[in-house]
């Protein structure tokens, strides 16, 4: 806070100027999205310090107390556990799963897609067969089987979710890389003597990144919902550990008597996915110099 | 002096499929072309669209593989496309494209792109790279303040200058220009051609200049090869070929160039379209459109032969073979 105060006293005009500049450059919705995502990341990082109570601490005298109470801002659930504390922990868990899985599937899928576009022939067929297999397989059933066999753990969950959606990246990356290879700029760089790695990473990837980013903004909410679904079925995050989907699932039973148990995590899911798509769209436009 | 680049009987065949179940029919895009370019020399290649000019240019650079024949650069055969040796050779030979906007990466500034060959071939130390890029930009006539621009922020002529600067960055010995000015405004064409010619003279670069525009070729080329349906039909020095074309196709092409201030006199208008390369006419490929065609032209393919000092043509009539054949027929 101190540096902000110093600027304010030193030159109020300049601060107002820079705020106005920021407002002109960034639309309000995007500013909100960035702010929300930053807040989520901060909460996830400092969850241990932000939680007012332990997530399993039960306050049996004030069970199902409504939000706004002095002791429990967001109320308590049926066992008297603090909803705010559980929400903070849920944000951490769900964010790790969603970000980890989105990045995993994007990197894995894009790599395979580029490999297919680069080598064609057998490699391409293999990648496409795998992608078709992945698309045809009911993902929920596969995850059920895997989780039932190996038991649920955080690493396994992230890997499993990362597997979800990679085939979309593979297809998109392959198609875009093939069409980019046919376009002049990639052929021109090849003709300059560039190695394939340089052509793909330095030229093709930035040129196709916008489509991949949009695809990531679509996968992110899907993964959060997928995790919610699995947790709801009792195969995702195991109690007493908690996640956003897990909270929504268990809060459902008290929907009429204590809606706050479910509404708080549901609102977080909604606002986070909204922010992701707002910021993703904005980022895509910013990364394209021809749209500036 | 040995030629910088030599092509020996090059053949390139494309397979085209007709319809869903139709068999593949071969198209001989380049059909037995031989040529040689000396260091510092400019060879113009002219012909209608579809005559195989661009394919020939790509084969000279080793981008397209040859079905038969061989390309030799400085006496050694061209390595296979995509190999490390082929990539290393790119520093010596470069291509200037027809469409500069497509040839440039729209997400990188032109200074970055002009400096890219230096980075790829590790030619200039990192700290001297900016100076070399500035030097190249000045050489092609780009302002220093345009260094940070993106390709779409430049005009067509400026983009082509940037492409030329990038091609010259590694100080190549050979430059293949594939229709470098045909996408540009006429007033810009002359500027870009002058830039190319000046840089070529200063640096002693050999150039293969592919164009369908005879005026431009006449302006820049020392020697001209005329292509028709994948074959060279006439080759001679630029002055000679424009003053006294021998092959009927060359004469038709040259008579089609309008001369300012003169009515289009003696214009030879070709009948019909260029034939389908997948269905090449028998004998001389030009005979269905040739005003001088004889019987022999329909049956026998004319070979490229010497018809004067330093000039060759592939035509039965020019070589005087028809006369002897007709004499033989009369006697029989």
From TrEMBL, chain A:
GO terms for biological process: transmembrane transport. Keywords: Cell membrane, Membrane, Plasmid, Transmembrane, Transmembrane helix, Transport. Its main location: membrane. The chain crosses the membrane at residues 28-50, 95-117, 137-164, 204-225, 260-283. The keyword Transmembrane helix applies. It is a multi-pass membrane protein. GO terms for cellular component: plasma membrane. It is found in: Cell membrane. Belongs to the binding-protein-dependent transport system permease family. This is Transport of small molecule.
TrEMBL record, chain B:
Gene3D superfamilies: P-loop containing nucleotide triphosphate hydrolases (3.40.50.300). GO terms for molecular function: ATP binding; ATP hydrolysis activity. PANTHER family: D,D-DIPEPTIDE TRANSPORT ATP-BINDING PROTEIN DDPF-RELATED, TRANSPORT ATP-BINDING PROTEIN. Keywords: Amino-acid transport, ATP-binding, Nucleotide-binding, Plasmid, Transport. This is ABC-type oligopeptide transport system, ATPase component. It is a peripheral membrane protein. The keyword Aminoacyl-tRNA synthetase does not apply. SMART domains: AAA. SUPFAM superfamilies: P-loop containing nucleoside triphosphate hydrolases (SSF52540). Probably part of a binding-protein-dependent transport system y4tOPQRS for a peptide. Probably responsible for energy coupling to the transport system. It is found in: Cell inner membrane. Its main location: membrane. Belongs to the ABC transporter superfamily. One of its GO terms (biological process) is amino acid transport. The keyword Transcription regulation does not apply.
